[in-house]
Amino acid sequence: MKKTTVFINDLHSGSKYAVMTDKACDADNNVSMSKNQEPLYEHLKMVAKKWRNPDYIVMNGDLIDGPARADKGTTVWTTNVDAQAQDAKRIINMFGKPKKYFCIGGTPYHTKDSTVNVEEVIARDLGAVKEGNRYCTEAKLINLAPDKTANTVNERIFHITHHMGATKNWQYRGTAPSKTMATLMLNESHFLERTRKIYGIIRAHVHHYWQEKSSGRLMQVLPCYQLQTPFMFKIMPESPPDIGSVRFTVHDDGTIEDEAEILPIRTGMIKVH
């Protein structure tokens, strides 16, 4: 037996620099993607077809870009967050129908419009697993191994949240996930009964792909579907994002196959004058 999990995060639907579908529309008309967005959509279509109908889809934050208040709406193709949410759902639906959806909230600047949490609405519309009265929570513990492994040494419980500390220095990219994993291990009894353990962490937000492994732990940082924005050119012009998705396949003996589909071509390249 095995269980497959596809992670979808940092779509930033609505952004002029992020993936969008060919059916995207604002309140009135269809919206055309730019030449730099086209490779993102083509890559996503390929990944969605290859990984269609997984057991789980985990939506790990920043599914929409929001009204872009700081940029006065100039960096989005629509400030209508409902239109952004509709296209985010089109993207997620490209992966088919999983057995379960899970949703973890992203950055409030992007995902909350006044008192409305747009990711909660997306998660509810897709039928995500409900926790209390909420479809979208700040963090989740999920056993990504087949169900029969629950409460055994072969279960693979991951602590999943959107946010993680960032660094401008690539050589320290492993510091944040390793520190987080160590802290979780220190506080493990606050999360689980002592007979169980947190096997790994899943993080997003920083828009680069990174992984740290040991003999008994796995720390995964997820890539994104947004190119460098004017803000990112301002603070980290020398560090382009990793575009793509990640899938885990976990077998009932606890072994994990992790796959990353990273867009191989360079989009949004600066012209040489």
Description:
The chain has 273 residues and is an alpha/beta fold. It has one domain: Purple Acid Phosphatase, chain A, domain 2, CATH 3.60.21.10. The protein is built from 6 helices and 13 strands. The chain has helices spanning 38-50, 81-93, 108-111, 118-126, 175-186, 230-235, and strands spanning 2-8, 56-60, 100-104, 112-113, 116-117, 136-137, 139-143, 157-161, 198-203, 210-213, 218-221, 244-251, 256-262. It has a 6-stranded mixed beta sheet. Strands 7-8-9-11-10 form a 5-stranded mixed beta sheet, covered by helices on one side. Helix 1 (38-50) links the parallel strand 1 (2-8) and strand 2 (56-60). The mean pLDDT is 93.
